[in-house]
């Protein structure tokens, strides 16, 4: 009896987790520097898995806040996420991710903002207990604790600027880029918490098992990010 030779299965492509929007757009030049071009625009396609010009690399499109989870649990070998997202993830999963490179893209600041007529400095000096709305609960808690300011944190997922306007909170902690959204809602940034940029994150097991494929991409990303700072 003859037996049919089994066909070898092709290895799973290296998977990079990205979110739509600014991070995706600013990652494209970094990918190009590594010889990788994405085949489709996620803003025009409904696909969540995108091929690239290299058959051994694919992109998956996920929510920004989910990127670290996909990488930590090995569904993606690598990902790109903002420091704001990584701080929140690390609070619940310390040391879970390898973060080798600050890519210096999608830069902004995490700030405290209030209504223009709210005297933030006086409230802090007088030891008032502030109500603060944010989705960055861990970063906000650590910031105010370091200042010795008592706060009640209210977790919101969007429309943060509304909270001080209708009395839900005294202040918000949110990302600020141009400041136009704050200005449009009669709010003002009163304190910077930390600068934010996006970083490459890598699954620790994948770095050991798939180092040959991952390291050249990491090196190309690092060269490209340094070039943008020159």
TrEMBL record:
Cellular location(s)? Cytoplasm
One Pfam family assigned to this protein is HisG
EC number(s) stated in the UniProt entry for this protein: 2.4.2.17
Pathway membership of this protein? Amino-acid biosynthesis; L-histidine biosynthesis; L-histidine from 5-phospho-alpha-D-ribose 1-diphosphate: step 1/9
Domain (ATP phosphoribosyltransferase catalytic) spans 63-222
Q: Name one GO molecular function term.
A: ATP binding
Question: Could you tell me the keywords of this UniProt record?
Answer: Amino-acid biosynthesis, ATP-binding, Cytoplasm, Glycosyltransferase, Histidine biosynthesis, Nucleotide-binding, Transferase
What is a biological process (GO) this protein takes part in?
L-histidine biosynthetic process
Q: Which reaction does it catalyse?
A: 1-(5-phospho-beta-D-ribosyl)-ATP + diphosphate = 5-phospho-alpha-D-ribose 1-diphosphate + ATP
The entry sums up its family as follows: Belongs to the ATP phosphoribosyltransferase family. Short subfamily.
Q: What does this protein do?
A: Catalyzes the condensation of ATP and 5-phosphoribose 1-diphosphate to form N'-(5'-phosphoribosyl)-ATP (PR-ATP). Has a crucial role in the pathway because the rate of histidine biosynthesis seems to be controlled primarily by regulation of HisG enzymatic activity.
Domain remarks in the Swiss-Prot or TrEMBL record: Lacks the C-terminal regulatory region which is replaced by HisZ.
Which PANTHER family does the protein's record reference?
ATP PHOSPHORIBOSYLTRANSFERASE (PTHR21403:SF8), ATP PHOSPHORIBOSYLTRANSFERASE ATP-PRTASE (PTHR21403)
Name of the protein in its database record: ATP phosphoribosyltransferase
Species: Orrella marina
Gene coding for it: hisG
């Amino acid at each position: 009896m003859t037996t049919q030779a089994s066909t070898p299965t092709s290895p799973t492509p290296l998977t990079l987790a990205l979110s739509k929007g600014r991070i995706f757009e600013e990652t494209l030049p970094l990918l190009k520097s590594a010889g990788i071009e994405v085949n489709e625009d996620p803003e025009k396609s409904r696909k969540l898995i995108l091929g690239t010009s290299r058959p051994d690399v694919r992109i998956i499109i996920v929510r920004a806040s989910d990127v670290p989870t996909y990488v930590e649990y090995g569904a993606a070998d690598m990902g790109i996420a903002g420091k704001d997202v990584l701080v929140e993830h690390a609070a619940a999963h310390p040391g879970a991710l390898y973060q080798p490179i600050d890519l210096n893209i999608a830069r902004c600041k995490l700030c405290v903002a209030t209504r223009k007529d709210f005297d933030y400095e006086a409230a802090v000096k007088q030891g008032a207990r502030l109500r603060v709305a944010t989705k960055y609960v861990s970063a906000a808690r650590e910031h105010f604790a370091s200042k010795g300011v008592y706060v009640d944190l209210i977790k919101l997922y969007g429309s943060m600027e509304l909270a001080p306007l209708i009395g839900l909170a005294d202040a918000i902690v949110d990302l600020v880029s141009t400041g136009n959204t704050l200005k449009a809602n009669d709010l003002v940034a009163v304190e910077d918490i930390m600068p934010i940029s996006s970083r490459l994150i890598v699954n620790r097991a994948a770095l050991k098992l798939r180092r040959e494929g991952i390291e050249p991409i990491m090196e190309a990303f690092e060269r490209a990010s340094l070039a943008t700072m020159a």
